[in-house]
Amino acid sequence: QVQLVESGGGLVQAGGSLRLSCAASGRALSSYVSNYAVGWFRQAPGKEREFVAVINWSGSIAVYADSVQGRFTISRDNVKNTVYLQMNSLKFEDTAVYYCARDQRALASIYSSYDVPGRYDSWGQGTQVTVSS
To answer: Using CA atoms, how far apart are residues 103 and 90, in angstroms rounded to an integer?
Structure first.
């Protein structure tokens, strides 16, 4: 069964950096990720899952939550069928489990509802990011 797999999480001091990766596992078609917008969400203990960033299928458009704008960068390599989240200047409040998710529709725009979890139909298991103060 194909699914998304996140990697790259870990423990880092405040001000440090991490790069998360999101790739398809199993017998994934080359287009399993490359033809779809992919979003990153995060969930801290006791809090709801929140939107972090999204990138459209071609990589030409990216949108960020205000809380990470200027510190995080989402990118993709459609040859490798992988999406990345570069996180710089990490803060204690960035501590959470980070999930990547694939849009329900191929080649769709991300002009609306990109921050709604229900828009995405394939989720990874998450990777823990812990920022020490």
So the answer is: 27
